[in-house]
């Protein structure tokens, strides 16, 4: 149910000047994310390394022409179109620097498993979706997701994501995603690969 008093629109992030605002919104949206807080397990690590991580995701999505936000800047979606991949080396370096060393092997094991669930055919990848906490549960995340999914359906493309928060799984299921597995290694919270089949 859309509870927005005014109807926001989905816009493509088209200027590098907008990247900082998108990164800030994603950091705020993820301050209670179980996997994010397990990886960056102190306030200092979270506020040092999460912005760097989201800068990579937002920038890559922006360069691919597929970073989106609501026009009020409260919700952000980072997409990778078929054939475009994030720079895993850059992401791995940030995680390696920010994560407690004793957790790195466990984390690497889960991330390796996640790769097994990516669709075999060309697909869209949702690398990040976040809503500023003061604007959550008002329909912005659904608005962003539906906008891209309509395009994916028109092109008959599957969509892949992995959820780092079990509470978000029903939201994605309502939009046609299916849980592929619940991946967990040692003390790392579950990572949940999900696929929305081509329509």
UniProtKB/TrEMBL annotation:
Transmembrane segments: none annotated. CDD domains: NAT_SF. Residues 36-199 form the N-acetyltransferase domain. It holds the Pfam family Acetyltransf_7. GO terms for molecular function: acyltransferase activity, transferring groups other than amino-acyl groups. It comes from the Bacteria. PANTHER family: GNAT FAMILY ACETYLTRANSFERASE, N-ACETYLTRANSFERASE DOMAIN-CONTAINING PROTEIN. This is N-acetyltransferase domain-containing protein. It comes from Paraburkholderia humisilvae.
